[in-house]
Amino acid sequence: MGLILRWKEKKQRSSKQEKVQKSRKPANTSFRQQRLKAWQPILSPQSVLPLLILMACIFAPIGIGLVVSTISVQRLVVDYTECDALAPANGFETIPSKYVHYHFSKKVTTKPQWMLTADPETGNQTCRIQFEIPNHIKKSTYVYYHLTNFNQNYREYVQSFDLEQLKGQALIEDDLDPNCDPLRTADNKTVFPCGLIANSMFNDTFGATFTGVNSTPDYLLTKEGIAWHTDRHRYGKTEYNASDIVPPPNWAKLFPNGYTDDNIPDLQNWEEFKVWMRTAALPSFYKLAMKNETNGIGKGTYIADIELNYPVRSFYGTKSLVLTTNSIIGAGNEALGIVYLIVSGIATLFAIIFLIKVIFKPRPMHDHSYLNFDNNDTQFEESSFTSIPLREIL
């Protein structure tokens, strides 16, 4: 008997637990039951028309302003990728038109020319570009280099540096950021600076003086202050000893005998290095090389010397010299202003279409002409509804 009683008590307890089991039904709240209030606008020509007009009124002036500011920018662009292959060595020759683009306030009478010179001792090649400035430019002048088909936006490339090393700390191999691989060490020494970004630094050398021709005075430029002010805190004077470090492999031409106590690069004051380390988002980009913000460049003919060191044919890219002034939005960018004008034009077009529809074919909000109450087509019998169980409806 005792066993039978204990079995009944156990069965009663289990049945009670089943009854007390927590329900999985969501709470009866507006959020859980999807009863929150929502705004559902009714779009009609009358309501959309003011928005289109407002959009056109905003985008049109901005687009016109961008186009006007771009037109005011004066610039010279010379693609010197093929200078070592096409330029003569015994005198200047006109550069093919497909490699030259320029825009000035006055007409250019002499097209840009180039020639190639070589140092017999070192073998270094220099591309000399002779160009004319047809009018005096009072604005500040900037010199950029333009690279194409160079992807600095790959994740492994962007992360390939060690911030603490750039700040000056003397880190050994195990302490360096693993993202610097495979350029952390070489010959059992630490690579300074490590990583892919530093190793691929642009090293064509631009002469800081544009030499004047035919009594035209020389024009001086500077490399000081070309980097962003916000990048200053990222770099410091290194604590490495010259015997503990080696330059990146692609810096062999700059440091043929490696580092010594006298030639360790001072990243804190190396403006060109800071500019290169700020990676670009697109495969075609400009980077500032020199500038003159005190004096504009005068009318005349000048020669710019560029020492050729940086190979671009391996990645099917190009490199260009860009001499330009700047506007409120920076260097000239025709595409941005054109996009604004296109958006304004589309908004204006649709605004006109909706306005014509409102004038010639208006439709009041209370118009029920599109509703159909034909009982023959939509016969609904109450019996068919009542025959469906309530559980299936829910």
UniProtKB/TrEMBL annotation:
Signal peptide: none annotated. It holds the Pfam family CDC50. It is a multi-pass membrane protein. It comes from the Eukaryota. Its main location: membrane. Belongs to the CDC50/LEM3 family. It comes from Saccharomyces arboricola (strain H-6 / AS 2.3317 / CBS 10644) (Yeast). GO terms for biological process: phospholipid translocation. The chain crosses the membrane at residues 48-68, 338-360. GO terms for cellular component: endoplasmic reticulum; Golgi apparatus; plasma membrane. It is found in: Membrane. Residues 10-32 are annotated as: Disordered. PANTHER family: CDC50, ISOFORM A (PTHR10926:SF0), CELL CYCLE CONTROL PROTEIN 50 (PTHR10926). This is YNR048W. Keywords: Membrane, Transmembrane, Transmembrane helix. InterPro entries: CDC50/LEM3_fam.
